[in-house]
């Protein structure tokens, strides 16, 4: 089965629509959503409604820290992120907020694990930024492949049976064979707010039979997404950063 895995959509309708279109054109059979549906972007209602529809048709979804923040005041965020979350609360209806609140922290599916942050303590929202971070996550699960987001920068880590770690930044559209003799941690880039210097939206395709993973980048209408952020009175930096990929 070919999985399309998305993370950190952040209310960016234009980016999510573009990624879904490409994933379907490339014959993705199942969708995986790794959280942070809201925050930063100006279309949280559309994104959550789309996620709800995908889940109703068999998609897997987990909760991100911005999704958590919609329903609690205990999440600590920077000023721009907090302003966006408070604005988002006023846009979502009860059913949409309930959907976000009811999302699981992680999902195990065969020899795969899906989580927003890292797997050893999902609710602490640790970032995977180094091999040490990745090792902590991999040790916490027997899964062959763990998929996570949260960082907004693509990366791929692996750990051998002797706990030797490797890491690299995968190249766009170049399949990588996830060998069975190692555990793997695939850190997705962001659909709605990439931060690796490439402003194009990011998602992953994974073939469960061949165990090949392909990181994909998708151009989208950044100007429209940015203009809608500005029109809704959200912090200007949330719009400006989209074209910069940071």
TrEMBL record:
Residues 1-208 form the Calcineurin-like phosphoesterase domain. SUPFAM superfamilies: Metallo-dependent phosphatases. It comes from the Bacteria. Belongs to the metallophosphoesterase superfamily. YfcE family. This is Metallophosphoesterase family protein. The lineage of its organism: Bacteria, Pseudomonadati, Pseudomonadota, Alphaproteobacteria, Hyphomicrobiales.
């Amino acid at each position: 089965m070919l999985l399309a895995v998305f993370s950190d959509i952040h209310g960016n309708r234009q980016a999510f629509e573009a990624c879904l279109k490409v994933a379907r054109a490339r014959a993705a059979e199942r969708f995986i959503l790794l959280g942070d549906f809201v925050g930063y972007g100006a279309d949280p209602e559309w994104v959550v409604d789309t996620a709800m529809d995908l889940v109703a048709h068999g998609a897997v979804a987990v909760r991100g820290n911005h999704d958590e923040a919609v329903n609690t005041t205990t999440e600590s965020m920077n000023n721009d992120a907090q302003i966006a979350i408070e604005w988002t609360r006023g846009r979502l209806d009860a059913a949409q907020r309930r959907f976000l609140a009811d999302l699981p922290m992680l999902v195990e599916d065969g020899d795969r694990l899906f989580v927003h942050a890292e797997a050893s303590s999902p609710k602490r929202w640790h970032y995977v930024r180094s091999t040490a971070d990745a090792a902590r996550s991999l040790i916490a699960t027997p899964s062959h492949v763990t998929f996570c987001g949260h960082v907004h920068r693509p990366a791929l880590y692996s750990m051998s049976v002797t706990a030797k770690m490797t890491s690299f930044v995968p190249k766009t559209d170049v399949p990588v064979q996830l060998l069975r003799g190692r555990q793997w941690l695939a850190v997705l880039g962001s659909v709605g707010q990439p931060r690796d210097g490439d402003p194009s939206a990011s998602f992953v395709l994974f073939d469960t039979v061949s165990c090949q993973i392909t990181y994909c980048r998708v151009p989208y209408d950044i100007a429209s997404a940015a203009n809608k952020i500005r029109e809704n009175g959200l912090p200007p930096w949330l719009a400006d950063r989209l074209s910069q990929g940071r």
